[in-house]
Fold this sequence. Notes:
This protein is an alpha+beta fold and about 400 residues long. It contains twelve helices and eleven strands. Keywords: FAD, Flavoprotein, Oxidoreductase, Transit peptide. InterPro entries: Acyl-CoA_Oxase/DH_mid-dom, Acyl-CoA_Oxase/DH_mid-dom_sf, AcylCo_DH-like_C, AcylCo_DH/oxidase_C, AcylCoA_DH/ox_N, AcylCoA_DH/ox_N_sf, AcylCoA_DH/oxidase_NM_dom_sf, Glutaryl-CoA_DH_mitochondrial.
Amino acid sequence: MSRGPRTGVDPDRLAALDGLFTAEQRQIAAAVRRLCDAEITPKVPLWFEAGELPDPRGLMRQFGELGLLGMHLSGYGCAGLPATDYGLACRELEACDSGIRSMVSVQGSLAMYAIWRFGSEEQKQQWLPGMATGETIGCFGLTEADHGSDPAGMQTSARRDGQGEQADWVLNGSKMWITNGSIADVAVVWAQTTDSPRDIRGFLVPASTPGFTAGEIAHKLSLRASVTAELVLQDVRLPADAVLPAATGLAGPLSCLTEARYGIAWGAMGSARSSLHAALDYARSREQFGKPIGGFQLTQAKLADMLAEYVKGMLLAVHLGRLKDAGEITTEQVSLGKLNNVREALQIARTARTILGANGISLEYPVIRHAANLESVLTYEGTVEMHTLILGQALTGQNAFR
């Protein structure tokens, strides 16, 4: 009687996940993986260890050449591909490193999406083509040092200076934890207007504007192969047409966050897949007590649990992608994807670390790097608590945020 394969099966093949995608979608994923394998994956452990990204502008141009920047947007040099295709790209980027996926996500799903969704035609023509090629880099300034989960309390202000509709805007304030901030050519900054009626508006701030500075944040122990900055605005004077005309109130920036969270639900599964593969390879080759540790029941139980959560997370991501492509996705459904998939990816990385033992903390393997990165992904663009309350309100009809 056959006991089944002794060499093991790839997790995606075991669950027949490739069958969920078209040949074109598999080609897109393979193209992103080839770029990462050739240009990033061999180097990213060194970047992580050094806490730097040596040539972010060159890397962004490579992503632009592959058509990854704003790939789910249409027009202005963007590829206009389905949301599922974008999700597969996010999975491959984060299988390489969360910081690399964040770089692309902030460019396309936050900065570019804000301009594409809320900008004037002139603003779109001015910024989006260069951002799609990676020649122009954008960032998204919403979070403040004292206002993370509650952006409505933001202190960054925008006041009118002059008469009539052509009056300038003057911005003052600061933003924290801004990916791409210190390399950006343009920042999408959200501010509280001081004139009546007071409201939250979005502004396009060229990095060369007097009074605007961006300093890189050091001493991070997570997302180390990523550019993270603090933005400071001191009497930054902007023309009247710097405001995003179609965004008024918190609905604007929150819709951008929903767009980015969708990509995170896919990206987290990349970290999970990489961690699972590392654990499988190690379990098949590492011998203790006379045989590979993959032959022991406790190790197999860990691997089976990791596989189950990875497959469930992928099925959820695919479901969300199809809902998004059909124009039917809701904010609550995206919160479900972000909450579940990041939480389970982090648990997979932690479990993989235990299978690798002491080697699990070495950057020779990707596991500890994924685990450290996912600690940030778990809380950025909505903490576990915030997404839990979003789902709780949807289920009960009761607002428990305050």
